[in-house]
Amino acid sequence: MNKHQQQAPDLPEHKAPWWMDGNGLKEPHFLSKGLHAFWRRLWHWLLIPLQQLDPLECSEAMLNLIAWDRGIQRFSNEPVALYRKRVKYAFANARDAGESAGFKRIFERLGIGWVEVHERQPDQPWDVITIELADMELAGNQQLLNVLIQHYGRTCRRYRFQVVYPQPLRLHAARFSGSYQNFGAKLG
To answer: Pfam families of this UniProt entry (predicted)?
Structure first.
């Protein structure tokens, strides 16, 4: 049962009261079962439009229509799963556009790993925003990053990518002790 079926009212299991059931006639019982099966099938058919409103579950034709409505265009060789996420989170991404914390949330929603956004750094022009990414994220998502900056970035700013190579750090704690003595000596 998907989430749309959980939101829709349930079709009750109903036994029709038949006055002839006590006489051993089973036709009304079979008729009741058949009608219930028909209404259950019709109930599923009526839920199909609800399923088409969710960008993560709808058909691709409907996805393209929802994307057009939300102002999202698919870039070349974009995986369908990523396209579905971009369409689903279009409103939230538009709301978060234009601020550093919002930009981080946009990247997080779309599955891009660690990101840091730096604005107005010393020794940099005021309109340069530096986006720090891991090397693998930049290499694997270059088109996506360009589309995101073009769509959600500030219009009067320049964006610069800075590649960071994350290295695991191991730190071991151990007890270290020793004793120290000072000796003085005089000549002569």
So the answer is: Tail_P2_I (PF09684)
